[in-house]
Amino acid sequence: MEQVYSEPLRRANEEAQEITRESLRTALLYLMNEQEFCEITVTDLARRAGVSRSAFYRNYTGKEQILEEIRQRFFLVEAAMLQTEEYHRDPRAYYFRLFTSMKEENARVIQAIFRARTPDGVPLYMNRAMEKLYPPGGAAERYQMRMYQAALSMLIVEWVENAMEESPEWMSSLCMHCFHEEKWIPT
Question: Which of 10, 66, 88, 118 pairs with 19 at a CA distance of 20 to 30 A?
Fold first, then answer.
């Protein structure tokens, strides 16, 4: 009889934990738009998320762990777009979707990540995400992927640091020129 009740209870606890974690991730992003990452305290985070400090520590060891999770989730989603058939069929559409997503849908997340100014930085996270999706094969393939990762991540870093001034169309055209040897026609 006890088995019947334990499974729904376990699922309910997991859902509650994910709601708490999502609340803390959201709270961190809001706070990072208001103050420097180094100034944010666990108390600030718990208060903004509407959870207790003990709920915070049941889920995370510190605010750095939340930022790490936000970065990993974001860059894994962005890197996963490279696995889509769209990328292989129409890379320009992929780049357009990538830069549009970053500028119009995820600008707040990206800018918060950049403002945190932590030592590991954006290229490292993008590289880790891409390595999860594309385990390196031989030496030539590994170096080629590393070169592509570095170029694309540094391009994104520069674009974000310049307040995403160039349009997604312009950035797509640049990527096609750099990575696919297509004549560059700035739009």
Answer: 118
Burial class (CB in 10 A: 0-12, 13-18, 19+), 170: middle
CB-based burial of residue 25 (10 Å sphere; 0-12 exposed, 13-18 middle, 19+ buried)? buried
Nearest one of 70, 60, 62 to 20, comparing CA atoms: 60
For residues 149 and 183, give the distance between their C-alpha atoms in angstroms, rounded to a whole number. Answer: 21
Residue type for position 6: S
* Predicted structure pTM score: 0.69
Cβ count within 10 A of residue 176: 19
* Beta carbons of 91 and 176 less than 8 angstroms apart: yes
Q: What CA–CA distances, in Å, run from 142 to 5, 90, 130, 171, 172?
A: 50, 23, 11, 25, 24
- Give yes or no for a contact between 55 and 45, defined as CB atoms under 8 angstroms apart: no
| Residue 105 identity | E
pLDDT digits (tens, 9 = 90+) for 96-131: 988 998 888 788 888 888 778 665 555 565 666 666
Distances (CA, A) of 133 to 41, 82, 103: 34, 9, 23
| Cα dihedral value 14, 19, 21, 23, nearest 10 | -170
3-state secondary structure of 182: coil
